[in-house]
Amino acid sequence: MTERGGVVVLDFGGQYTQLIARRIREQQVFSSILPCTAPLEEIRKLEPVGMVLSGGPSSVYDAGAPVCDPQVLQLGVPVLGICYGMQWIAKQLGGKVEKAERREYGPARLEVQNGASEPDSALFSGLPKSLRIWSSHGDNVLALPAGFRATGRTENAVAATEDSQRKIYAVQFHPEVKHTERGRDILRNFLFQVCGATPTWSGAAFIHETVEAIRRKAGACGAICALSGGVDSTVAAVLVHRAIGDQLTNVFVNTGLLRKNEFVQTLEMLRERLRLNVIGVDATERFLTQLKGVEDPEEKRRRIGREFIAVFAEKARELQGEAAHEKIKYLVQGTLYPDVIESVSVKGPSATIKTHHNVGGLPENMPFQLIEPLRDLFKDEVRRIGRELGLPEEILVKHPFPGPGLAVRLLGEVTHEDLERLREADAIVVEEIRRAGLYEKVWQAFAVLLPVRSVGVMGDFRTYGKTVGVRVVESDDAMTADWVRLPPEVLERISTRIVNEVAGVTRVVYDISSKPPGTIEWE
Fold this sequence. Notes:
Rossmann fold; GMP Synthetase, Chain A, domain 3; 5-stranded parallel β-sheet; globular
């Protein structure tokens, strides 16, 4: 997807690179992400009105530290460096960057500086002279390049600098995160006061651009969509259907790892409510056979990913054998950016947290090419796109569900017996969250079956049963999350019902870990 006249974000591997692009889109300005190694000609083709250089985990003086073409600073368009981006600009233009005596991680206080003989910085126009900011750096810019002035400082470091003549701006903190006070206003000033951007991007524009891009890519070839009934895969399916129509066949696979009654209910909803062409495939025994004896979560993902592809390849051969489709060349998935950034370094040298079924769980040699129209979006953005497409609200508010399903919520070996325990416990959690009127107010609510037994007492008899963990979190985009402070009476009902109704479970615990340091899912 391309659109001229937007902002290009060059990715140096920062975990928040996509968040920068998202904040720009929230101002209705188109943004696209390119790796920091992108050729200059590729950048020029987009005709950007501005560029942002992202943060990253490296130090600019490290061997092999990521760099971009120095000519990006001479394209004649405004540049904003963030964190590592600021350090790279300083080093590239003759400044000095060294390891900080006092690192800054987390909150800090920015004091905006304006020289008496110089105009106020456009970056901080209309903002208070003191701001609470969020930093994450162990290096400082000790000497500025010629032509630059400091426009903001913290107690420990130069935190903002600029050369207004060349329209090169840089900040050592992260204006894109919500913890930075007036951070969106700082980005807004860069977009409109410095770059002169035009607010023309919208969900409708995304739909139009994406549909056209899919149509160009797929041509006359067929596609098969891994449809789960969740918001991500459903929005992806509707977008691809708009682009290639009946060349798309949706396949909903029952892996045996779905939630209670999900296979039947989802098939009915997709066929009756959305009128999509959906084929249901019950492959329960195939997947559970693949998982027999497997305890490692990464191996679970790999095996599930391989089996998914095997199922889709078989179904594609069947469809083509019926001579009802052109050659099925593409696999459609509802992959989102949080899946990508935690799984593999796609745009830049970011750190891998864990693989996701949609991304890292796929085999290297696949019989399909991927179409992932949502891989640069966050969940809430996908929901907005879904509303633009006219999808029912009941689909749009569904909680995220991992591609490997209950396999990564059942710690240890996956067995039929434990899957049934987990399904029942999970259904109770969701029912009680709905009953309390909280389902649409929280990001995710689910149960986890732990490989932990503990002593209990039931009916005057000693028991030695399993433990269920309950996880309820709130989030904006799944990049960060906090545990929900559920009312005690809700927790009590969940615990009482699980112990009374789920055979073999004698203890319930509540997960009060945030992300970071934990992840939302347990595996």
